[in-house]
Amino acid sequence: MSLRRFARATMGALAFFSAAVAAGLAARHGPQAAELTGPRAGRIEAGDVARGAGELTGVAAEMEASGEAAPLDARRGSDVRRKLDHDSRGTYIDEVLRGRDSSLARWPDRSARPLTVWVQTPASLPGWQDGFANRARDAFGQWELSGVPLRFTFVADSASADVHLTWVDRFDEPISGKTLWARDDRWWIVSADIVLALHHRDGSPLDQSAMHAIALHEVGHLVGLDHTRDGSNIMAPRVRVRELSAADRATARLLYSVPPGRVR
Ligand SMILES: [Zn+2]
Questions:
Q1: Measured in angstroms, how far is the CA atom of residue 10 from the centroid of ligand 1?
Q2: pLDDT digits (tens, 9 = 90+) for 94-123
């Protein structure tokens, strides 16, 4: 199977307010080159978790290296477009389409054959907390509960896993999470990996709430979602919530109700 090279990158920042009630997240996005080669070529998504309202400002920028979508045939494409238009209420599928040049990528139905996920537990990394692994696993579980035809099962063998989630101490860039996925010519996602940081670039540690939030955001990208400007959703560029919204779940379900590819 030949894979189209499709590199795209964003950087983001998730910012916490110290006030407990107003605690929120914001993702800051900036340009980040991500030309990839080989069969792992795919999309990179990155986000950062930081403390302080000063991290709330930023701009989004993305780069696509290549990756013209394989078009659905004309009639099928218009049928898909019609369905998306008809069922778009309560979703941000239009924003996902705009962000992807009217193309959608998703996994095949994996409800009967769960995606295998290997979650690293790097006890030797400074700042590691045993609870982080469960917070990350819960992020997969939350998306599973959204109603998409995906199931995740956690495996001990990294070599055979479909999805790998690993940690690093910190990134050199002002980010604390990345998702890389690859798709085939028909825009079926075929693999995906997530990397999360234990510390912000400035060295301050992420807490478990931050880890859960950025994991939810990154698993959303792994599922195939893109950003929405509505800050009430986990997939907002400036995420101000810590759980999936109804629109997050509805958009994911709508994505999985149509075949992938270009729909206009
Ligand atoms: Zn993102």
A1: 7
A2: 999 998 889 999 999 999 999 999 999 999
Domain at 69-262: CATH code: 3.40.390.10
Q: How many angstroms separate the alpha carbon of residue 27 from the centre of ligand 1?
A: 7
203-215 burial: b if 16+ Cβ within 10 Å, else e:
eebbbeebbbbbb
pLDDT in tens, 147-181: 999 999 999 999 999 999 999 999 998 777 889 99
Domain chopping of the chain, boundaries: 69-262
Q: If we measure between CA atoms, which residue out of 224, 235, 228 comes closest to residue 261?
A: 224
Q: How far is residue 117's CA from residue 201's CA, in Å, rounded to a whole number?
A: 27
* DSSP states of the chain: -------EE----EEE-SSSTT---------------STT--EEEEE-EEESGGGG------EE-S-PPPBPPHHHHHHHHHHHHHT-TTS-HHHHHHHTTTEE-BPPPEEEEEEEEEE---TTSTT--HHHHHHHHHHHHHHHTTT-SEEEEE-S-GGG-SEEEEEES--SSS-SEEEEEEE-TT-BEEEEEEEEESB-TTSPBP-HHHHHHHHHHHHHHHHT----S-TTSTTSSS---SS--HHHHHHHHHHTTS-SEE--
pTM over 0.85, yes/no: no
Ligand 1: centre distance to CA 177 (Å): 9
Distance from the CA of 47 to the center of ligand 1, in angstroms?
6
Total residues found in the chain within this entry? 264
| CA 74 to ligand 1 centroid distance, Å | 31
Which amino acid is present at 83?
K
